[in-house]
Amino acid sequence: MEDNQRPVLALGLRVAAMMAIATMFMLVKVAGERGIAGPEVIFWRQALSVPIILAFLVSRGNLHMLRSRRVASHARRAATGMAALLCNVTAAMVLPLAEATTFGFTTPLFAVLLTPLLLRDKVGPWRWAAVVLGFGGVLVIANPGHEYVEPLGVAAGLGAGLLVAVVSFQIRDLARTEPPIACVFWFALFGAAMSAVVMPVYYKPHDSTDWMLLVAIGLTGTLGQFLLTSALRFGQVASVVVMDYTSLVWATLYGWLIWDRLPSSATWLGAPAIIAAGLVITWREHRLSKAIAPLAAQGDD
User: Fold this and answer.
1) What is 181-218 written as a DSSP string?
2) Residue 231 is part of which domain span?
3) pTM above 0.90, yes or no
């Protein structure tokens, strides 16, 4: 274990990161209800991160950390990450927060499915069983033939799970040569440039409340990214990733306090199955010392 390992601090930082990210998606949902389009929300989420990160690095004399010889790899990662962010934002706007958050927990399941294809690694019976259990939980929440669940929200939530899994492999590759803050910065910069293309279509005038919402989304999203990065400085991925499931607590709390809505009975049944599947996968990855880091890309939330 490295000298800078401080597992309790790492867990605390990861919990704080989940709170910040859950808060961001709560604000995203409020913004959607105020008529702000998802693509515009995404633009401001990314664009506001750029000056914040630059100011932080300049203040510490670490601007050199953004130098990279893998700009093309960062651009590819940003393209995938932006698609994942669009799915996450759509799910948050369309579904109740708890359900949208729970579908995001499918990322480890998709990571297992992608492992044989991208890493040529063998997947054993424990992880295959976890995948079956997890997608069984998805079916319970989707509740076909019973209580209506918005299909677009389900598709967006599962799409986010798949795309974040792909991003996790891209980040794993970038992390061999790039510091985490560089990955965050280049994602924000390329993401802002990509989403700026559609701003003439989706932008509309805003009042002061709208602007406060958009700024708060940018701040909480950036804070979540910094906390995620900091947590991985002080703890092992396979240990801190378990704290990602605390985001469901915050999503449920916000849903109750703001929208007076608690998760459906189907969610109470399906979510534990999805979470249990993720924990089994994390445990097996830890045992095999090949952690996929399935939720380390939450900033693509």
Assistant:
1) HHHHHHHHHHHHHHHHTTHHHH-----HHHHHHHHHHH
2) 7-300
3) no
